Amino acid sequence: MVSNNQEETPKDFAQSSKIRLENLSFIRVSGKSSFLKGTVGSYQDIWRQRQLLGRLFQRDTKTRYKDSSLGILWSLFKPILQLLIYYFIIGKVLGTARSVPDFAIFVFIGITIWTLHTEVLTRAVSSIIENSGLIKKVYFPREIFPISASLSAGLNFLIQFAVLLLAIALLSSSPPNWNQVPIAISGILMIFTISAALGTALSAVNVYLRDTQHFIEIYVVIMFWCSPIVYPFGFVHQFLNGSWLETIYLSNPITIGILAGQRGLWAAGTNDPSQYWPPDLEARLAFCWIFALIILWISQRIFSKLQGNFAQEI
Question: In this model, does residue 113 exceed pLDDT 80?
Answer without folding.
Answer: yes
